[in-house]
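retry 2 of 3: previous attempt timed out while embedding flavin mononucleotide. Reduced batch size to 1 and resubmitted. Inputs unchanged:
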Amino acid sequence: MLKVTIDGQTIEVPEGTTILQAARMLGPDVAPPTMCYYSKLETSGGYCRTCIVKVTKGSEKDPRPMPKPVASCRTIVMDGMEVQNQTSPELLEARKGVVEFLLANHPLDCPICDQAGECHLQDLSFEHGIESTRYEFERRTFKKIDLGPYIQLHMTRCILCYRCVKVADQLTPQRYHGVLNRGDVAEISTYIEKAIDNDFSGNVIDVCPVGALTDKTFRFKSRVWFTKPSDAHRNCDKCSGKVTLWYKGDDVLRVTGRKNEFGEVDEFICNTCRFEKKRTSDWQIEGPSKVDRKSVISANHYSGNTVIPDFAFRVAENNKKIDDSPKGSNLLAMKN
Amino acid sequence: MVRKLLLANDHIPGIQGYEVYRKNGGYKSVEKAMKTMTPEAVVEEVKKSGLRGRGGAGFPTGMKWSFLAKPEGVPRYLVCNADESEPGTFKDRYLMSRIPHILIEGMITSSFALGANTSYIYVRGEYYYIIRILEKAIQEAYAAGWLGKNILGTGYNLDLYVQPGGGAYICGEETALLESLEGKRGNPRIKPPFPAVKGVWGCPTVVNNVETIAAVVPIVNDGGEEYAKIGIGRSTGTKLISASGHINKPGVYEIELGVPVEEFIYSEQYCGGILNNRKLKAVVAGGSSVPILPADLILKTAAGENRLMTYESLAEGGFASGTMLGSGGFIVMDESTSIVKNLWNFARFYHHESCGQCSPCREGTGWMEKILHKMVHGHGETKDIELLWDLQRKIEGNTICPLGDAAAWPVASAIRHFRQEFEECVMEEKIKNSIQF
Ligand SMILES: Cc1cc2nc3c(=O)[nH]c(=O)nc-3n(C[C@H](O)[C@H](O)[C@H](O)COP(=O)(O)O)c2cc1C
Ligand code: SF4
Ligand code: FES
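retry 2 succeeded.
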């Protein structure tokens, strides 16, 4: 076992553990945010640079600090390593830079994006970004492309995390799906728009951190925070059949994999479960899904709006700090 | 007399062909290595020579070779990096087109030292005519028995292939090169693992620049110690410099490391002074990626010592007042040059060449180019200078491969040393506006 200290908390981890995995063992509050790493996809991570951390001590043997921030998702823990994440202002500044780069060519039109409310980039910029954009040039845009009957790709929103490419590579038998061009005109494509057509293709929707890959059977049917997630399962001969159903009233609007506290699905599900089983009678219902208090989804589903997401408190507190105005003080009073 | 090791026979007519090359001492290093030395002894000579990688980073070649993993039953590979695409660098092209056999000879001797039975030369796509030259040279070498099975009766086999690239700068980064060589998209790999452990086809691989491999020929012929006598300190041997810009005699020069920069620019033997007797304004000493230095700092260090053409002397003062020898792309700018315009040109290049894997480089290079475009076309604002500075700072050190740094350093150094020009550039716009109103 190797000892590693992250933001002052020490944990012992087996050899080969990455800094990110170690941080996740300590809990979601310590773990750096991720946009491209996905624990269920091999060789994912390393691209977006959101998860960077500062290594202030390399190891017991070689205590020298690492000269540059490292991607925690792709850096292996050494015995005695010391790492700073939230506790290094310098690092937070660098991460702010990464967020700004990710947003440079991303449309800032969350109100009309179907992913809003469950978008990792939205959460990330809320927590780590700056209030306004310094990018004053035209953003790159693409036409929407249909990847088969169920999936829509809108490259305009893509942040090139490569997760869907890894899904196509690792989960589906043929890979007609990859990256074309380079630099800031690189795009995800199914080469000559060949449909990705196989039983597990729908998982590209679940792994997409933004609104680039969306479910055509659900697009614009409802804002996610007006839907209510419920865990359910069915006997499926292709996948585990364990899913989350998203209800509006009595209707199942969509089916997704079950996501954990890091926004990753526990198990990949097949297209039959995802796209073709939209009646409650198709499923054994297990009960309401656990929704992270941080999520805006928690704002609306339970009666009486009693659950107020954490971020609302943070906004209120920030406002108070800035101009000591009474903005949000009602909210703060509710918290106490 | 200046010693030349790589270009010594450059003046001999017909040196491009096998017969003339062989008659002038060609392929002696192969004979010497295979008949009188063990592979380890060749590595040892390269270590003694103090040779450092000529591709840009200057990493000691002998040390790189000794890091090569040697697991039982796994093939090893030598890959020559002939992707030469750094703006201002054209020495490999010169060497390969004039004396192709020195590279082939170096590849054979080096492959023997590393125990590689298959080796590749990865050539940038735009050098299509060089690909033909190299292929002809390889055919000649096969015909003469320097390549193939049981070379010189030693039982050692070697096949050598030329792989054309698609014309991407990023495929000069060694791991992107390996991906491209394998027929994939040329994206740099995330390291570790390093090529010495897992390179091409997942096997241990050494990647070296053309000039590095060619230098192995004189090192084996004359011995590492002889080689190390040339140069100063840890900068041993000779170096090919691609000299371009506002000079009287642009071209490729083989220098002994240690020549004073001033002599290199002004002597008749090399650049022959500044064009039209104008004044020197700035120099980019090692290819577009290295920091630009103003005339006073390129001729003398901040401490007032003469700047020499060595790895150490050019780096003296760190990035605050120094630069790097890099790949030896020596770009000279006279007083008529606009630093801002030149920087825009560089920024355009990096934007075009970023592979797009990591967000700071993918988005940052384009952003910087757009700001500079705006400035050059007279629409810049004072805040843009600070924004540029902030962006380069947030790219540097925060990317998968060094292309991000390479895009950031020219911006940082131009602002550091020529801020006034940027200010004038945005001021002019203000004045224009005030006239309009
Ligand atoms: C963006 C980028 C482009 C590069 N281009 C080249 C190149 O064209 N030729 C080259 O020899 N090295 C190039 N390099 C350096 C190589 O990665 C590698 O360090 C070099 O080939 C090692 O050879 P050496 O040790 O003989 O210098 C490049 C590096 C980067 C980051
Ligand atoms: S730094 Fe640029 S070129 Fe290098 S891997 Fe990242 S995006 Fe690609
Ligand atoms: S999550 Fe680690 S680099 Fe993207």
